[in-house]
Design goal:
By secondary structure, this protein is α/β, with parallel strands linked by helices. The protein contains 14 helices and 30 strands. It is 25% helix and 29% strand. It has a six-stranded mixed beta sheet. It starts with a strand and ends in an 11-residue tail after the last helix.
């Protein structure tokens, strides 16, 4: 049988992961794979860009699929070649330089782009960012920020979400006086309630970070090079480096221009196929941050990789009926070195919801559970990583909770006596150690029994710790 031609637009974490999943399932026997990526390199881990900025990782350390990976698997990668048009009728994609590629199956994995609020004076007369103004999305962005940080004195990060705080951590590590300016009343409002955000803010300020909450930036000051920021109340902040991290927006224009249905993102069904109106478009799929499934757009890596796995199951023939029905979002993070885990709802939604909480701000500890029908509907755990594995397992399984809620919030003494040994021994085999890749304790043990004799070998076999890296300890 002749192979079909499968074209992937996007060589980021979702597009490259889909191809990796597909090839791993034998899809290379069915398809000739052609990929297009905007950046002139292989696929790298965007989650670790903040580690590159803070110089705990070198740029080469974060590559997942170097250029040699594609060649070894007979995948054609057009690195640095941007697709500008999808022609659904002719079943082809057209690159900016005129290159045309036919497809039998098309995967759109165009990711997202930084949101640039309507600041005055953010660009020069040529339409490019003023010197000293950056976004924080790509490896090139990261390297340009580092070059500027080497001579800067004061940095301002506009946006107090996860990405903005990670950028701030990196700039602090460069020895810069660093300010975070956030429009909302508390940091990381998408993940945290006000109580947790306040504890986190105190921790950051002890590290030397200045935070400006409920503050709207209206203008970038300076001619030629940034000299400061102006705020809505008329006050100003002097700075010579600005990073804009005010959110992301799905890259859906390419799909919309082709006639595909787009709301916030590219609308897909449970089969991850795109739509034109309410009609599925045969052989055109979308995955990752650009895709909108059942009204949701996911920005965390674990749901994106659940999507790529299900689509690879379908197209490889391993499971032609595989569907993606949405993700129960939970994640472990290390925000500026502080352990944080969030899952499910952060606030009660019904009168019968039970809220169980414990706060110790001086130690940077905040714990909150949302209990619904005697099951864990959500949790925020800040500063106590020991209780997180059991909570994640309880959340994922939907199992009933103990009547004594304190047993849930506080790890039993046997497990905490020696965190390195006893905690691992008492963790159930089914517990997920790596949330990004869904790797359980049992899979890690199997890898060791199968010959993986180092942390890196276990990571290579299972993919554990190749996402955010928080599971590595």
């Amino acid at each position: 049988m002749s192979k079909e031609r499968l074209v992937v637009i996007g060589n980021g974490m979702a597009g490259a992961r889909f191809v990796d999943d597909l090839v791993g399932r034998g899809g290379g026997d069915r398809f000739d794979v052609v990929m297009f990526g905007d950046e002139p390199c292989g696929n790298y881990n965007r989650i670790l860009l903040s580690s590159v900025l803070s110089r705990s990782h070198k740029p080469d350390d974060i590559f997942i699929n170097p250029l040699s990976w594609y060649a070894a698997r007979q995948i054609t990668l057009h690195a640095g070649r941007r697709i500008e048009q999808i022609d659904l009728r002719a079943r082809q994609v057209i690159a900016a330089d005129g290159l045309t590629e036919q497809y039998d199956k098309l995967i759109i994995a165009t990711g997202s782009s930084p949101v640039i609020p309507p600041f005055a004076n953010v660009r020069d007369e040529h339409g490019t960012f003023k010197q000293g103004v950056f976004v924080f999305r790509t490896l090139d962005d990261c390297e340009r920020i580092m070059r500027s940080a080497a001579t800067a004195r004061t940095a301002a990060v506009i946006g107090g979400g996860l990405l903005g705080l990670e950028a701030a951590r990196g700039l602090l590590n460069w020895g810069l006086e660093t300010h975070v300016i956030h429009l909302m009343p508390h940091l990381m409002e998408a993940q945290l309630d006000p109580g947790a955000a306040d504890v986190l803010r105190r921790q950051f300020e002890q590290m030397g970070l200045f935070t400006h909450l409920a503050t709207r930036t209206t203008a970038i000051l300076g001619n030629g090079h940034v000299e400061g920021l102006e705020f809505a109340d008329g006050s100003r902040l002097n700075c010579d480096l600005v990073v804009i991290a005010a959110g992301i927006r799905p890259n859906a224009k390419l799909a919309a221009d082709a006639g595909l249905t787009v709301n916030r993102g590219i609308v897909v069904g449970d089969d991850l196929a795109c739509r034109a109106g309410n009609v599925p478009v045969s052989d055109v799929f979308a995955v990752g941050e650009c895709a909108e499934h059942r009204g949701r757009v996911y920005g965390l890596v674990a749901p994106l990789w659940e999507q790529t796995a299900r689509l690879a199951d379908r197209l490889s023939g391993r499971n032609p009926d595989a569907v993606y029905v949405g993700s129960s979002v939970s994640t472990k993070l290390k925000v500026m070195g502080v352990d944080l885990a969030v899952m499910g709802d952060k606030e009660p939604v019904g009168e019968d919801d039970e809220v169980v909480s414990y706060s110790e701000p001086s130690r940077g500890i905040y714990k909150k559970l949302i209990v619904r029908n005697d099951r864990l509907a959500g949790a925020i755990i800040l500063g106590d990583g020991a209780v997180v594995p059991s909570l994640l397992q309880t959340f994922a399984s939907g199992s009933p909770l103990h009547d004594n809620r304190a047993e849930i919030l506080f790890t039993p003494a046997a497990a905490t006596a020696v965190r390195g040994g006893d905690a691992a021994a008492t963790t159930p085999d089914s517990a997920r150690i790596c949330d990004c890749n869904g790797v359980s304790k049992a899979q890690i043990i199997e890898a060791v029994l199968g010959g993986a004799r180092s942390v890196q070998a276990v990571c290579d076999v299972t993919r554990a710790s190749t996402g955010c890296g928080s599971g590595r300890p």
